[in-house]
Amino acid sequence: MFDLLFRFGKRRKDDVFSFKRNSRTRDIVRMFFKNKLAVVGLIVFILVALVAIFADVIVDEQMCYDITGSPLEKPSAQHLFGTDQIGRDYFARIVHGARVSVSVGVIVMVLSIFTGAVIGCTCGYFGGWVDNIIMRFFDILNCIPGMLLTLVLVAILGKGVENIVYALVISFTPSMARSVRAMVMNLSDMEYVRCARSYGTNNATIIIRHVLPNALGMLITTAAQSIAATILAASGYSYLGFGVQAPTAEWGAMIALSKTYMRSAPLLTIIPGLAIVITAGAINLVGDGLRDALDPRLRN
User: What is the pLDDT of residues 213-231, one digit of tens each?
Assistant: First the structure.
């Protein structure tokens, strides 16, 4: 009898906590969708992501490299965006360029957030000499301008997509780690963390179950804004010739190849430039919407 009552009470307690969690999630979603600009940004980013994912379905990748028309043809039914300086279909290159640009942004974001979260949690939670050594090393990296640091790393590692990803991860990780460290240092002094320590809970469990979930909002917002920053950075380095190399289709590299034809064929520069601006702007709108939705002061 008492065992049944205990189980019923425990289930009711779990239901209440589950309802509170669901209610909190519902409030966050409601606040996000009340922001019309954030919704527009989300729709645009989803469309760009779908184009990147289903690029092979939309247009054959081989059309990015085959010379299917005359150089610098104007848009037509056969070539929606015309052709580039050597006669390749520009629509196919824009579509498959989305896959490269978005993939670089997402991969750099995931790796930099993961490494930054691990390093930031370690430094913020434990502190001590480990924190001092890592933070002083990051101070040295922060003294070097981000673009210069990335160019040096690319010069050491070599040109190419993989190397630009590694260079951007190394460049973005210190700022991510500092943000997570500051959040974890504040959370480590909270009463529920002290209570967990007093019960003998190990540090890994406290970090994973109690600290990181409360820092998740900041991580999500930072991740959304980091995708836009990395897409812009990767396109900029490709434009300078340090990133994606020809003949691979990538928006920044396409602008670099077409800059000499800005007067005779301005669409070769305008279209990939608009693609970069629209994608980065949409992601920034999503990041702003998530920041506002996850802010408890605005929710209340």
Answer: 777 777 777 777 778 888 8
Domain containing 132 — which CATH number?
A: 1.10.3720.10
Residue 65 CB-density burial (10 A; 0-12 exposed, 13-18 middle, 19+ buried): middle
| Contact (Cβ atoms closer than 8 angstroms) between residue 5 and residue 273 | no
Domain tally, the chain:
1
Average pLDDT over residues 99-114: 87
Amino acid at 94: I
Q: Is residue 140 part of a domain?
A: yes
| Domain interval for residue 113 | 37-299
Q: pLDDT averaged over the chain?
A: 81
CA dist., res. 186 & res. 202, Å (int): 19
Residue 1 falls inside a structural domain: no
Half-sphere exposure of 41 (CA within 13 A, CB side): 23
The CA distance from 219 to 180, in Å, is 8
Q: Is the per-residue pLDDT at 42 higher than 50?
A: yes
